[in-house]
Write a structure and sequence with these properties.
The protein has 381 residues and is of the alpha/beta class. It folds into two domains: 194 residues, Glycogen Phosphorylase B (Rossmann fold, 3-Layer(aba) Sandwich); 171 residues, Rossmann fold (3-Layer(aba) Sandwich). Helix content is 44%, strand content 16%. It has 15 helices and 13 strands. The strands form two sheets. The chain has a seven-stranded parallel sheet with strand order 3-2-1-4-5-6-7, with helices on both faces. Strands 10-9-8-11-12-13 form a six-stranded parallel sheet, sandwiched between helices. α3 packs across α4 and α10 crosses α11. The two termini are 14 Å apart.
C-alpha cells in the first residue's frame, strides 16, 4: 500500500499519533509519506522530536505550501502541489488528520481517473473556530470516505454540529507499550530536581502539554493560591505556548511562584508523567481522552482531570482516577488536597492500567486503522 498521512503540523499528541501510525505502516512493508506545513504559524508548529523520529525511520516528509491556511488561493495552490506528489508517488490512500488538509486532499484527488479514498481522523474540534469555519469543516467531512472520531463525545459533537456522513466511527488513539520503572535521570536537570524534592518530602504534580487557553493551565494557578501554604507539593508545567508569560505573571502576582517549575518544551513528556505522583489535566476541550492521561494510566501515575465528556470516557471518578468540576479552581484545589492527604490505594492505578491495556494500546489502534484502509481500498475497485 502507498499511504500518505497529511496534517497541518506535527504537534502534540496528534502529531505523535501520525508518527506512530506511519512507523507501524512502514514496519509491515507499506510505502508511507507524511505531508504537513513547514513553517509555524503563531502557536502552531512542528515538534522537532516528531520530525527527527520520522527522519530516523527514513519516512519522507513532504512540506507543502500550507495545509494550515484557509485562504482559497492557498488551499488551491497546495492542492495542486499535493496532486503532483500523489501522481508521482502513486498514492493509493490518503489519511488526513484535520479538516483543512482533508479539503486539500479532496481537491488534489478529484481529477484522478482511479478513486483515491480520503479518511480523516478528527483529533479535536478546537475552541477557536468561527461559526463559518465550523460549517465549512463539517461540509468537508460530509464528502469523506470515512471519518474517525477519537471518542464517543467527539462523535456526538460532530453530529450536533450537523455532520450526517454515515461513515463516521469511533477509534481511540493508542500509545506504544510502556516501560515500567523509574525514569532515567541522567542528564535531565528537571527530573533530577523532582528526585531531590521527593527526598525532601515533597509530592510532585503537574500538567504536560502546550501552555494555552485550551489546556487551561491558568486554572491550576488559580487553584494553587487557595492551597494551604504548609502543603508540601511542587507543580511542574511541562510544555510551552502562548500563555507561558501569563502563567509566570500570575504566579508572581499571587506570591506562589516558588510552587511551580516551568520546564519549557520537553521531547519526552512521558518521563515526567512517570515521575509525577499526580498528573493534572485541566483541559476545557479535547478530541478524546488526552494521550497524557493515557500515558499516566500506562505509567501507573494517578490522574486528576476536569469532568469534560472527553475525560469522563477514560477517567472514572475514584475508579481509574479523579475528576473535578470543569473550570472550577475551588474544586480543583479541594481535590488536590484530598488526594495528596489521603494517598489513594494502588487499586486505582491498577484499574487505570487495565483500562489502558484494554482500550489504548497502539497495536489495537493500528490494527483497527488497517481494517479501515483495506475496506476503503476494496470499495474503490
Amino acid at each position: 500500500m502507498n499511504l500518505l498521512h497529511i496534517s497541518t503540523f506535527l504537534q502534540g499528541g496528534a502529531g505523535k499519533m501520525v508518527v506512530d501510525l506511519a512507523r507501524n505502516s512502514k514496519a509491515r512493508g507499506d510505502q508511507v509519506w507524511v505531508a504537513c506545513t513547514k513553517n509555524g504559524v503563531g502557536d502552531y508548529s512542528n515538534y522537532q522530536n516528531h520530525l527527527d523520529e520520522l527522519k530516523s525511520l527514513q519516512i519522507p516528509i513532504l512540506y507543502l505550501e500550507s495545509t494550515f491556511s484557509r485562504e482559497h488561493q492557498s488551499v488551491y495552490k497546495t492542492a495542486i502541489e499535493l496532486r503532483n506528489y500523489i501522481r508521482k508517488l502513486e498514492i493509493e490512500l490518503v489519511h488526513s488528520h484535520a479538516a483543512n488538509p482533508s479539503l486539500i486532499s479532496l481537491i488534489a484527488t478529484s481529477a484522478r481517473q482511479r478513486k483515491i479514498p480520503v479518511l480523516q481522523t478528527m483529533h479535536g474540534w478546537g475552541i477557536y473556530k468561527s461559526i463559518e469555519q465550523e460549517k465549512k469543516d463539517v461540509s468537508v467531512m460530509e464528502l469523506l470516505d470515512q471519518v474517525i472520531a477519537i471518542s464517543m463525545s467527539s462523535k456526538i459533537l460532530l453530529r450536533k454540529k450537523g455532520l450526517q456522513n454515515k461513515h463516521c466511527s469511533i477509534l481511540y488513539n493508542g500509545i506504544l507499550p510502556t516501560v515500567q520503572g523509574t525514569p532515567t535521570l541522567q542528564g535531565d536537570p528537571h527530573l533530577l530536581e523532582i528526585e531531590m524534592l521527593r527526598k525532601k518530602g515533597f509530592s510532585i504534580a503537574g500538567i504536560v502539554g502546550t501552555i494555552d487557553k485550551r489546556k487551561n493551565q491558568k486554572l491550576l494557578i488559580e487553584a494553587v493560591k487557595k492551597l494551604p501554604k504548609e502543603l508540601r507539593v511542587k507543580f511542574f508545567l511541562v510544555g510551552e505556548g502562548e500563555e507561558t508569560n501569563e502563567i509566570k505573571r500570575l504566579s508572581l502576582k499571587y506570591g506562589i511562584s516558588d510552587k511551580f517549575v516551568l520546564t519549557g518544551f520537553q521531547e519526552n513528556g512521558e518521563k515526567f508523567i512517570a515521575a509525577f505522583d499526580l498528573l493534572i489535566s485541566s483541559s476545557r476541550s479535547e478530541g478524546g481522552p488526552p494521550l497524557s492521561v493515557i500515558e499516566a494510566f500506562a505509567k501507573k501515575t494517578l490522574v486528576l482531570a476536569s469532568d469534560t465528556p472527553e475525560h469522563c470516557e477514560a477517567v472514572k471518578d475514584n475508579h481509574t482516577g479523579f475528576l473535578f468540576k470543569n473550570d472550577d479552581p475551588n474544586d480543583l484545589a479541594q481535590c488536590i488536597i484530598q488526594i495528596l492527604h489521603a494517598i489513594p490505594s494502588d487499586k486505582i492505578k491498577k484499574n487505570a492500567f487495565q483500562f489502558y491495556m484494554q482500550n489504548f494500546t497502539l497495536n489495537k489502534t493500528f490494527e483497527s486503522y488497517l481494517e479501515w484502509y483495506h475496506v476503503l481500498l476494496e470499495n474503490k475497485k
